[in-house]
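Inputs:
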Amino acid sequence: MSDIRLEERLIHATAGLLEGCPHIACGVLSPIPGAAAMLAARRHGGRVSIIGCDLPEYRCDGGVELFDQAAQGRVDAFFLSGGQIDGQGNINLHGVGDYPEMDVRWSGAFGSAYLYFLVPRVILFRLEHSRRVFPEKVDFVSSPGLSAPGIHRPGGPHALITNLCVMMFDKAKGRFRLASVHPGHSVEEVRDNTGFAFDIPDHVPETPTPPPDDLALIRGDIAAKIADPYPKFARAVFGIGAEAA
Amino acid sequence: MSDIRLEERLIHATAGLLEGCPHIACGVLSPIPGAAAMLAARRHGGRVSIIGCDLPEYRCDGGVELFDQAAQGRVDAFFLSGGQIDGQGNINLHGVGDYPEMDVRWSGAFGSAYLYFLVPRVILFRLEHSRRVFPEKVDFVSSPGLSAPGIHRPGGPHALITNLCVMMFDKAKGRFRLASVHPGHSVEEVRDNTGFAFDIPDHVPETPTPPPDDLALIRGDIAAKIADPYPKFARAVFGIGAEAA
Amino acid sequence: MTQFLSDPDALAALIPDGAMIAIAKEPLSPVALTRALIRRGARDLHLVTVPTATYVADLMIGAGCLGLVETSGISLGEFGPAPRFTKAVRTGAVRIKDSTCPAVYAALQAGEKGQPFVPIRGLIGSDVFESRDDYLTMPNPYDPSDEIAILPAIRPDFALIHADRADRFGNVHVGARHELKTLAHAARQTIVTVEEIVDGDLREDPAAAPNLIGSIYVAAMAEAPRGAWPLAAPGRYPFDEDHVIAYAKRARDDDAFADYLREQVFGAPARSAAE
Amino acid sequence: MTQFLSDPDALAALIPDGAMIAIAKEPLSPVALTRALIRRGARDLHLVTVPTATYVADLMIGAGCLGLVETSGISLGEFGPAPRFTKAVRTGAVRIKDSTCPAVYAALQAGEKGQPFVPIRGLIGSDVFESRDDYLTMPNPYDPSDEIAILPAIRPDFALIHADRADRFGNVHVGARHELKTLAHAARQTIVTVEEIVDGDLREDPAAAPNLIGSIYVAAMAEAPRGAWPLAAPGRYPFDEDHVIAYAKRARDDDAFADYLREQVFGAPARSAAE
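Outputs:
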């Protein structure tokens, strides 16, 4: 069997975090989460909505209905990213410097200041693991990782997936715990490149390799299907064009 | 020209009260108001929505959109009736006796407790002019004729049309004024059959007879068109079946 | 995933006594499902009419299925008052929460959006408002001189919907009746009967796709041809005026109504009764 | 009644400086109308993006049409940041009101329903909320321990919409884009460009009727073939990736952006520029 690509490993690891979610939604620029959601649904059943996808099976316009479903308790998992993510799970999609006239301005909150509160398992996904991206404190809280008592907060951060590792968020302690490190990387490398404090257990496993049957599914059916919402990704990772969908 | 029917006279009189209304809406059980709205639209331009009508020109499902339009200020005239209507313009669609276990229970408020507040010209329409129907005070205020200061109240009663007369509502004084009496009836008859006090000017004209061109329009085009929303009425008054629509 | 069951009686078995159910006005009211609830002896249901009702509510009230009815109006339309409703209110056999149509729509829309409450114009100063201890007023926070009514959101336990057609994925076509989408979204679960379950995926039909209740909302479904009879199903069958006129007459008398139930509801399953 | 005008420039003349305009996200964004507003030298407009924007907002900001932009996010999507937007925010050339997508939808829906304000979940504790002096919190009146965010309704002066087709009665077909109906209902007036004005009455087409913006909302309309270009019009033409990639590059430099405006916006009316 050919070498396992990082993308394939992350698809498999992410799918494991989605077990038992009846409805997983993900965004139009999230090919790895999208593929992971498809894999999880295949393995454990459940429904996947991919914003901007035209396949009826996954269709979701990312509009009013998805937000309403989140408030109804009908969305179990979602993915968010951030230009900055800190140790309390605060995410920053707005920029660097003092608001409003920031030194660097990013796009804005999109749905994060709402979905992060309402979707039980929000998986944070960022493939650039650095102290710049993971500072001790974000410059602007586009959406907070934790809420005060009395604020309706069924949702929040569940895990953080990077190019180096997987961290789980402990809501009680309000901090991340290193769960696994990808092959070729080390706990030290993770610590050196993370600007916030997080828990490190005595034994940190390696992020598992997808078993052959999952790998076959990822490289077959799923690679073909994600060519619809994520053509560039399918081409780059699996050499598959949209017509294969 | 054949005798003028009461319905025809009321259609003409009501149409006069609708002059200058860009959008007139009326209910599924209101054939005379419906015909009057059509006549007013023909004479002065404007748009007519008839709840439950299937003709695209007048189509209105009487659902969410009509209520939202009223709140947006996009409905200029509407019609309401009541099992009881009193001198302050309060209407009762709920019943007679003590609520909730009333001696006689009617249907309920429908949209009145909202539309009466928001539609500038609400025309009250009831063809049984009696002290029972027009008491000094209604048993139950399904919707009030007047609101306290500080309550958003762009709408309210404009006129009352009965089988005996036309009354106009004076919002400043909070009472009705007799405007005209239909041929064959008298001011005394109106007073004797009204349970509430109202103003009577020195000279009370007769409710005018529709001019020939209006009458021709009512008996022609309009009679044919109202056969769609109001087949029974078209049959009874104009001897026209729905197929004529 | 949507359960596909054999008939309305199988669906009725899913709805426990005491549940809050919501049913939309004609046309396409879920008559067959209502009759199945009566057959199963449902009790103490809380019916929310969306926003009004006719035959369906009168029938359930007469059969003793309802403990509470929340409505903006119940009558038989041009065929006069709803006899079992008016009697039950008069005698206190059913509790009533009176409302006004747009308040029911606004409260369901708040339920759909997960908003715990919603402001609405009108209502203040009416005895409808006075009769509702769950309707409040508050100053508009953006203009404290402006007093406005506040309603709690409505999230029914079950939306009961009869539709023209659905596919085998559980997607239900409601055409222009978008208030049925709001109703299904606001409800915890939606139970559906349809005139016809069709082949294919309605989501793939661009004319149908914008007008569907997605299967994610639909807990269970059964085919029920003529499932709205004696009320109308546009494009399928007309309103059965003779039947409803006869009903209006029989429902005025306790014994005649009991006969009607025996004959029309218990005598046969809704399906064959409709043919 | 809906006015039918010759082209987007005639429509742009109806929109005064300082007006609050609202524009929905891709696809079918009103690019030709936006370019016409730039040609007429519109100034100090308050743009509400529904709920986000890409090229259209960046272009208007770069052309100096906007005094204030209210948005949940502006970028060029997979083609990176929106250069004129990011620069204008950095330099304070445009004021910004940041929001989050469902808040924009909820505020427009409140505008549609004539509700002065609306409660919404989320937001509390974010710097988005802190940055908005018009966002408040209040205790849920039905559970005072539950603190919830409150937003003012949005009622734009003008909704600017590009649609696939409309009829000569002024009815506009939006297909599954029902948020465009909410937008048109919430706005005081709606100004529409369409790919094609069709014969007949769309209200008579059962597939179209549920998915129309009724003419009562539509103040004025013009036909604008390729009126969404270089963005996509599904079923008509695809997203023009080359154009937007080139734009993304040129918009990073003041002079190159000025050239782009001269060449693409002022150089020719939107219509021919699109062909």
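Remarks. Chain D touches chain B at residues 1, 112-115, 185-186, 201, 203-204, 209, 214, 216-217 (CB under 8 Å). The first strand of chain D starts at residue 3 and ends at 4.
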